[in-house]
Amino acid sequence: MAGYHKYVFDADKREFIGSFEEMYQNEQIDNFDSWHQEDSRQLQRKIALSILEEYNFQSIVDVGSGKGALTHLLKKRNNQVIGLDVSPTVVEQAKARFPDIQFSSIDVNNSDKFELFLKDFLKSHLGGVSLIFTAECLSYLSNWKDFIQVASRNVDYLMVSLFIPKDPIGFVKTAKELELEICKHYEIIESAHLTKSGFIIIFGRSHAI
């Protein structure tokens, strides 16, 4: 079992823990890389980034940005990228690594707070948010369905990349459940299911905008 797992789930009790701040504080002590964030060879990341290369998003919010290893690959010369993570420790790490990207600590499980953040951003930045990108995050949000709905009311495009094991402890139970929920609020443009690894990548445009 990877070193970070104990901070995320209690495998014996099959319960979500979500001690992400403690997890990031202990990475260097226990010598692990949460979710293998520094490994750019992962197929699901290559597929997600390849899909996005077809678009020119002026402003992107990466939810669950962690150390920014994937967030900084969304940054182009002519766009703005904001990374959001619940852990203040990892936000400070990401800021130090990638000073050209804005990182903020926010708990998106609080739907009202998340929507207020999006609306404030829309007011203060011409053109608003073009894309919400989230990788390896939705399974850790008890309100993940509300998250998708809030996103659809405020942002044109959504991309979700998520690992869903056969017997998940996380809040998203099946790829079909995720796809059906996204379909309520988004027209799906691309969907990729990686059968061997258990990843799903979904990219869509909001019905509401």
Structural description of this entry:
- With 209 residues, the protein is an alpha/beta fold.
- It has a single domain, classed as Rossmann fold.
- The chain has 8 helices and 9 strands.
- It has a 7-stranded mixed β-sheet. It has a two-stranded antiparallel ribbon with strand order 1-2.
- β8 and β9 form a beta hairpin.
- The N and C termini lie far apart (43 Å).
Topology:
Layout: H1 5-8, E1 9-10, E2 15-16, H2 20-25, H3 27-30, H4 43-52, E3 59-63, E4 80-85, H5 88-97, E5 102-105, H6 111-124, E6 131-135, H7 144-154, E7 157-163, H8 175-185, E8 186-194, E9 199-206
Helix pairs in contact: 6-7
List its salient traits:
209 residues, alpha/beta, Rossmann fold, seven-stranded mixed β-sheet, two-stranded antiparallel ribbon, 8 helices, 23% strand, globular
CATH fold annotation: Rossmann fold
Strand content: 15-25%
Radius of gyration (CA) equals: 16 Å
Number of domains: 1
Tell me the span between the first and last alpha carbons.
43 Å
Brief account:
α6 packs parallel to α7. Helix content is 33%, strand content 23%.
